[in-house]
């Protein structure tokens, strides 16, 4: 136990130092970029950092509650208007696969690794699928971590420069503005949704479970606020740590082979994302800000944070990413089997 607590305490202190430094320098999203930058730099210099384990996973429930609280009867009434742009998501995922698999194969990766490296799903889900299919788990971890890290770094700059979206928007009301009742319902919704989702084998249970339970309470008028700003900052802190510690123990060979491959593929993803964003904007299916965030192939948690910060239509953005994740999770094993990659078996936790 002590062998885990000491490195985790050191990692947390480093992350807090990063957040404080970025905050004092007036840099954007200090609770996300500060921990990510400091942990990433330390990991690349050989520091033996450790992730926060269940605490980090639990922090993601905050984002699930935030999304669920944004799902109101008014948002649900707008879903038919989003149908055409949502229908483009499977096409988007298919194109990524058709381009991505040959891309990684040409770089020397085996079929299983190539397939699950190309799929724009959650890092953990793709690693689990790939492991069951006999893929190179370390390669998948670093390729997907690089995808998320680069997109999380680039997306805010694009939001500011191209879309004139401020990164200083209020993430929520301060904690002092919340009553005990609202906080209590949020806590119950987060825990029940998370653990209930895990029991049912729901992918991304720490986010999707609380999102579902909170959405139900929001539709019923019981939860009427998003989580406090302090809670959103806490979620950012652990997301930043999670990205940074993925690079612990990375070797020069892994940097050259896996990380550079991930960087190159991000460029491919950027072109595809830009094309789909331009299409939905020009056809009037989405506003520019929402179109960009909806088709950015980053992690669901990270893009949820960005959508909250810039004040985008959270329902629109999350619905598209949820569709992408569902398409990847349900379609990836089927397509992988069609392409000759062994089909993984997901074990219930």
TrEMBL record:
Lineage, opening ranks: Bacteria, Pseudomonadati, Pseudomonadota, Alphaproteobacteria, Rhodobacterales
GO cellular component: membrane
One protein family per Pfam: AbrB
Transmembrane segments: 57-76, 83-104, 142-163, 175-194, 200-224, 231-252, 258-285, 292-312
UniProt keyword Transferase, yes or no: no
The entry's keywords: Membrane, Transmembrane, Transmembrane helix
BP term (GO), one: regulation of gene expression
InterPro entries registered for this protein in UniProt: AbrB_fam
Protein name: AbrB family transcriptional regulator
Top-level taxon of the source organism: Bacteria
């Amino acid at each position: 136990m002590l062998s885990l607590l000491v490195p985790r305490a050191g990692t947390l202190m480093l992350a807090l130092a990063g957040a404080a430094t970025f905050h004092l320098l007036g840099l954007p999203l200090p609770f996300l970029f500060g921990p990510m930058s400091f942990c990433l730099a330390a990991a690349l210099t050989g520091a033996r950092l450790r992730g926060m384990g269940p605490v980090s996973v639990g922090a993601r429930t905050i984002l699930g509650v935030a999304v669920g609280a944004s799902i109101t009867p008014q948002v649900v009434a707008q879903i038919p208007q989003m149908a055409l742009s949502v229908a483009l998501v499977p096409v988007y995922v298919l194109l990524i696969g058709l381009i991505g698999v040959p891309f990684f194969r040409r770089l020397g990766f085996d079929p299983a690794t190539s397939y699950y490296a190309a799929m724009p799903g959650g890092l953990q889900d793709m690693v689990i699928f790939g492991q069951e299919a006999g893929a190179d788990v370390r390669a998948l971890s670093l390729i997907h971590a690089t995808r998320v890290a680069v997109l999380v770094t680039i997306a805010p700059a694009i939001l500011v420069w191209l879309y004139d979206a401020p990164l200083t928007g209020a993430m929520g009301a301060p904690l002092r503005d919340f009553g005990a009742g609202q906080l209590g319902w949020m806590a119950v919704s987060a825990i029940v949704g998370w653990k209930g989702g895990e029991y049912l084998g729901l992918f991304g249970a720490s986010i999707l479970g609380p999102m579902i339970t909170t959405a139900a309470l929001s539709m019923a008028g019981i939860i009427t606020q998003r989580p406090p700003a302090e809670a959103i900052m806490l979620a950012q802190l652990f997301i930043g740590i999670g990205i940074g510690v993925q690079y612990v123990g990375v070797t020069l060979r892994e940097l050259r082979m896996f990380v550079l491959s991930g960087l190159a593929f991000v460029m491919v993803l950027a072109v595809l994302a830009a094309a789909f964003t331009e299409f939905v904007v020009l056809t009037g299916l989405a506003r520019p800000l929402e179109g960009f965030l909806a088709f950015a192939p980053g992690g669901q948690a990270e893009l949820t944070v960005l959508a909250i910060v810039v004040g985008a239509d959270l329902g629109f953005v999350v619905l598209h990413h949820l569709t992408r994740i569902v398409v990847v999770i349900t379609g990836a094993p089927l397509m992988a089997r069609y392409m000759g990659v062994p089909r993984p078996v997901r074990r219930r936790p």
